[in-house]
Specification:
alpha+beta, Butyryl-CoA Dehydrogenase, subunit A, domain 3, 56% helix, membrane
Length: 231
Amino acid sequence: MPAQQKKLIFCTAGLLSLACALGTAAAVGTQLWVRGTTLCSTGALLVNASGAELHKFIGDIQYGLFSGQRVRQCGLGGRPLQFSFFPDLLRIIPASIHVSVILFCTVLIVFALVGAGFFLYNAFGSPYETLHGPTGLYLWSFISCSCGCLIMILFSSEVKIHHLSEKIANFKEGTFTFKTHSEQFANSFWTILVCSLVHFLNALLIRFAGFEFPFSKSKDSGTTGAVDLMY
């Protein structure tokens, strides 16, 4: 492949990695990871609410990795409440999983920036034979893609398996009991998915640029060695 086309491919991959790093950093600081509604089941049972009356007992909830907001709706009007995970909710959430999600987000940002730097270095400079070359590019892309996948797996398990929304909705609630009415992942969660796919695409771009995979060997090497042994 001509050098100009390789430069174009590496520049594209570098800019994509940089965009992923910025997108992940923006996603970490937002409250747009989960959106949903909660049902005040205690209040609904007290008045035997159904149909249109049930909407008076359905509140809203949205949160991210550090903070969020929930609207407490128990038939007497909504009351918005702000909350933060550290240190308010640290006792009721699976703290190890939540901290791991934040840690992998940080790793994803760092390695996305490192990958962007090496992609641009390979586009405009003379690549080294080790970490600056194709092996390093595959490595940074693989680590970033793996971190993105781990973030989605851990966070989705925290939300779905450990019922994170219900734990948040029932935080410091002695009288009323809230249940999850609806729940869906929001923009920041899908940003991580897009970033993971982009890093996988970068690995394909490296291969498209003409580089072999790091541990692949030429088929002719074994044949040449056998011929040399015969003589």
